[in-house]
Amino acid sequence: MIIPFSEWIPDAADLGNPGVVRVLNVFPGLNSYKPVGTLTSVSNALDGRPRGAITFRDADSIVRQYAGDASKLYELSANTWDDRSKSGGYITGDQEAWEFTNFKNQILATNYSDAIQQITPGATAFSDLTTDFRARTIAAVGNFVFAGNTFDTTDDAVPDRIRWSAFNNAADWTVDAATGSGVADLKTGGAVLKIIGGEVGVIVCEKATFRVTFAGAPKWHEIRETIPGLGALSKGAVSDFGGTVFLWSEQGFFAVTGGTKLHPIGANKVDDFARNDLVAESRRRISSAVDPRTGRVYWAYPGEGSSDGQPNKILVYDPKLDKWSYIEQITELLWGSGGSAITVDDAVIGELTVDSLDDLIDSDRWSGDAPQFAAFDSSYQSGYFNGSAMAAEIDTQERELTSGLRSQLLGVRPLVDGGAVTVQAATRNLQTDTEAFSSAASVNSSGIAPIRKNARYFRFRAAMSGDWDDAIGIQIDPMYLRAAQGR
């Protein structure tokens, strides 16, 4: 008998669950689970909690990376975050965050508390793009810059308002049909949370999603509500990759393609688990990003046990497999980094070994060439999940090992490729009983984890550490199992 480590479905009951009931610090695989590397910092620390970051390739094909905290904006150079703030710095509100976009070889940044900022590659400081208004979200849609959830001295705060610049001119926001600059109040969707750029724009609000398409002069844009009733928990709960928007909403997790087609990805799988675990009053601290290499989508959020709203957990979705997994890791911000454009001579000596030198020289991480999934840790340093494998656990579903009877179990064989493995059995005789876990049993020379239990219902917890590759399941050999007396 093999109990496979199949799809993680925490929303299903333990007994009869078609998947596994709990995972920790693993990635989903085709027919197994894979290890997650520890988060390893490579940069110095920002002065304050990171509130946003961006990577883009400039007109000279140089990878540029910017980030912001409450009072400063930074640029990454050889693993050092250099201050690029305008004179006087910034006063980002406690509940606000920086959002960045690139437009015509220019980086724009907004935090709602200050004027929208701009910087061109090679410049030493940001400066005001416009003082006409402030905004919470910003993105480049076609040949225009869109900003949403605005404040100006005439109308004060207008959460459902979007504005767009003149055609090919990020500095001109004077409403004029001749230049293309305009304004619209969406009215039906609540506050604008996030604008997703591209040739077609997607606007995610609290209670609706809109699509922006180019219409030409004099109208310039058509803005249409395409998904009524579906918004996001916060702007950090929205990310995009390859034309698909991934969002965490009040109703659960969804993928939106083309701004119109809605695909539930968490229903009957993780929606209830996430809803119950989230510290709802700290939802503004959610951040999300897509790993451009694997396509996996990550949501870091403050869950049970969070201190002061700090994100302490990460949900992972693999669109290619349509499977989920879960990581426990304190992070301040998830983002798409471009690696570090430095030479081997600049590298931290402690990272160099004879075995890793070739990999180091060839790595995109050091060339700054390819985008990579990254995070800021609790010390406000940026890094990657590329350290040694994190300690991991997988719990199988609960089942009867002998149909209709209690079973006498003597041991199990964990099917894990490499590393060190221990196994525990959780048992009970009635569904109203509380499960009791056995002590953790290590694998002996025969590949068996000796566990002696007599019960009706069993589930197993495998714990992996060290250098392992695939966790496949738990095998129960007939010689270690027999029917027991009693029901």
How would you characterize the overall build of this protein?
It is a single chain. With 487 residues, the protein is mainly beta. It folds into two domains: 2-34 and 391-484, Jelly Rolls (Sandwich), CATH 2.60.120; 40-384, Methylamine Dehydrogenase, Chain H (7 Propeller). The protein is built from three helices and 40 strands. The strands form nine sheets. Strands 1, 2, 33, 34, 35, 36, 37, 38, 39 and 40 form a ten-stranded antiparallel beta sheet that branches. Strands 5-32-31-30 form a four-stranded antiparallel beta sheet, with no helix packed on it. The two termini are 21 Å apart. The relative contact order is 0.15. The model is unreliable at 341-368 (pLDDT under 50).
